[in-house]
Design brief:
Strand content: 15-25%
Largest sheet: 8 strands, mixed
Shape: extended
CATH architecture of the domain at 7-28 and 84-172: Beta Barrel
CATH class of the domain at 7-28 and 84-172: Mainly Beta
Distance between the termini: 42 Å
Number of helices: 8
Oligomer: single chain
Length: about 300
């Protein structure tokens, strides 16, 4: 089942409109997460808001939002008042213009969403807008109110739906000149550039995100599993690379190691295919190691310290 939509409303192109729903395209739920505990008791901690002057705890129903107009002087705004604010993009994604995808600098990208039709009646209008964009190879620029503010939204065809990318406003994006202008212009020797190009050639591949694992999260999960099982914590310590002293020599050695890597993989594959059948059958019948759950690593009232 897909998650609940973040937003529901209408997609509009000139006089054509259809009901749509906006869903988050990414999720952080698979990451290892921790609770804050009392080191002395092992009990969960909870956050509380306190009055800055009196130190008294302020309950949820007594909290209000305030905009500071002078030191210690606030304009109070209630949630009810904010919820009553309704502009066109609160309920309608109106495509204001179309541009080539290449015209939108990736530095403006923020969060990604999936946009789908929200009823059967609007599916045809949705398909017309999607396929017209696909035929002209353009993306749409619109606006939508999300999380209490109006955001620019880039729309582009994706499979049978549309993908939306919220965009940062111009004032939110820093100029790269402040970072790059001080980098000196360097004349690169032809041989060095060719060596670096050869290294790139040996690493050329198709982008496959499934091949990339979050190694830091895996190390954290291994740490939790080790502590849960009462084993010494295995914490990896990868050495940091050292400064290059002789760039030409480093490029040559890099090229050599990259060329050797595929040969090592082929040797390993050939060795695997020539492995005796008895060894393969034993490996196949060997029970896989059971992975301990990381969700209940820290039980209430019990804190396991690193061995």
């Amino acid at each position: 089942m897909p998650p609940r939509p973040n937003w529901k409303g209408y997609l509009k192109l000139s006089l054509v409109s259809c009901p749509v729903a906006l869903f988050p395209a990414t999720s952080a739920s698979e990451k290892v997460s921790f609770h804050l505990l009392n080191a002395a008791t092992g009990n969960r901690l909870k956050q509380q808001y306190v009055d800055a002057d009196t130190g008294a705890i302020v309950e949820r129903e007594d909290r209000v939002k305030g905009y500071e107009i002078a030191k210690g002087d606030y304009v109070i705004v209630t949630d009810e008042e904010l919820n009553e604010i309704e502009i066109e993009s609160s309920h309608t994604i109106d495509i204001e213009s179309f541009v080539a995808r290449s015209e939108v600098d990736p530095v403006y990208y923020d969060n990604h969403y999936f946009l789908t039709p929200d009823d059967k009646v609007g599916e045809e209008a949705f398909a017309v807008i999607r396929e017209a964009m696909r035929k002209r190879d353009v993306v749409g620029i619109a606006r939508v109110v999300l999380y209490g503010r109006e955001r620019m939204l880039l729309l582009e065809p994706r499979s049978k739906g549309l993908m939306g990318v919220t965009l940062h406003y111009d004032y939110e994006v820093r100029s790269d000149a402040a970072y790059f202008d001080a980098i000196p212009k360097i004349e690169i020797a032809k041989e060095m550039l060719e060596l670096a190009s050869h290294i790139i050639d040996t690493k050329m591949a198709r982008f496959d995100p499934s091949k990339f694992k979050d190694r830091y999260q895996e190390a954290v999960a291994d740490l939790v599993r080790s502590k849960r099982a009462g084993r010494p914590a295995q914490i990896p310590h990868a050495p940091a690379p050292s400064n290059v002293v002789n760039l030409m020599d480093a490029l040559r050695r890099s090229l050599g190691s990259e060329k050797a890597a595929p040969e090592k993989r082929r040797d390993k594959e050939e060795k695997s295919t020539t492995e005796p059948a008895s060894a393969k059958s034993k490996a196949a019948t060997r029970a896989p190691a059971r992975k301990a759950s990381t969700k209940s690593a820290a039980g209430k009232g019990r804190i396991r310290k690193a061995s």
